[in-house]
Design goal:
It is a single chain. Helix content is about 10%, strand content about 45%. Strand 2 and strand 3 form a beta hairpin. The chain starts with 7 loop residues before the first strand and ends with a strand. It has a single domain, classed as OB fold (Dihydrolipoamide Acetyltransferase, E2P) (Beta Barrel). It is globular. The model has no long low-confidence stretch (mean pLDDT about 90). The chain contains 1 helix and 5 strands. The longest helix has 9 residues. The strands form 2 sheets. The protein has a 3-stranded antiparallel beta sheet with strand order 1-4-5. The protein has a two-stranded antiparallel sheet with strand order 2-3. It is mainly β and about 80 residues long.
Amino acid sequence: MNTKNCPSSIRFRLAISAEEYLAYYQGSAQVVVAHSEDNKTIRFPASAIRQFVTHDGVFGDFEITFDENNKLIAIQSID
């Protein structure tokens, strides 16, 4: 079976306060760095989590999906 073109996904947890997210919103920070459940470091554009921002910030478990070139396909919240 050829899995080269199959998307991959990684689960991770975010805890970014509203004050911390302000740096992303204002543009002084553009990349979010997180650690996966299996301790891999992942980086992605802060704009990718904008839909998950609340008055308190961004908190919760997420799954990022990317293609074989490590290009971001989607990020979704995991309940």
